[in-house]
Amino acid sequence: MPILALDTVSKSFGALKVADSISFALEEGEALGVIGPNGAGKSTLFNLITGNIRVDAGTILLDGVDVTRQPPMARCLAGVGRTFQIPQPFQKLTVFENLLVAGAFGSRRTEREVSERCADILVETGLIQKANQQAGSLGLLQRKRLELARALATDPKILLLDEIAGGLTEGECHELVETVRAIHRRGVSIIWVEHVLHALTSVVSRLVVLHFGRVIGMGQPDAIMASQEVREIYLGIDV
């Protein structure tokens, strides 16, 4: 049974259809990439999965349980964690305090109960040296790492990554990819929206292509990127 399944999920804002009968499944332990041009509906897809936006039609199953009408907090507690394209830390709290808040509220445990796990996540994400630094003083790479660390602090079964490599240098991107790869190796299922294709395809085993809220392609990265339709729509190449 897939850990996550979307069945003909649709959403409109007035006349604008941002999700058009989207269907796909994420297997347990899989890393799935989502690509598409700006405005394709990628971030909207994440908001539908997390419950930040309610679907108009279709169903979302998490571990076989219908969560379509559940609020975001219930889905977080059920194991859905996410990062945001623009990092959103509590800027006046320290890095470690940011993780404690995420860990406690994301699991309904006390800060004391989650503190050891949060310390381990600081090591895993390369932030242990920044633990007592205010989040608002971090550079972009560290903010991206903190965004990832806060999502991990909720102890997710599924991790949704929203353009986490965007804006990084080549070296920084490589470092972050290695961290994501290590997280995947320990069994966390991942859906990753990303424009930095070499970073994405170095981790994921399958790609979903969105265009105007519709799935126009799904399969192995090499096959997807060789598709004439994908190259014309996503890469802007006239073939």
List the main descriptive attributes of the protein structure presented here:
Rossmann fold, 2 domains, single chain, 10 strands, 36% helix, 239 residues
Task: Write the topology of this structure.
Blueprint (H helix, E strand, L loop, with lengths): L3 E10 L2 E11 L4 E5 L6 H9 L6 E6 L2 E2 L5 H7 L1 E3 L12 H11 L5 H14 L15 H14 L4 E5 L7 H16 L3 E5 L3 H5 L4 E6 L2 E6 L1 H5 L2 H6 L6
Helix pairs in contact: 3-4, 3-5, 4-5
Tell me what you see in this structure.
By secondary structure, the protein is of the alpha/beta class. It folds into two domains: 1-79 and 156-239, Rossmann fold; 88-155, no CATH class. The chain has helices at 42-50, 72-78, 95-105, 111-124, 140-153, 170-185, 197-201, 221-225, 228-233, and strands at 4-13, 16-26, 31-35, 57-62, 65-66, 80-82, 158-162, 189-193, 206-211, 214-219. The protein has a six-stranded mixed β-sheet with strand order 6-7-8-3-9-10, with helices on both faces. It has a four-stranded antiparallel β-sheet with strand order 2-1-4-5, with helices on one face. The termini are far apart.
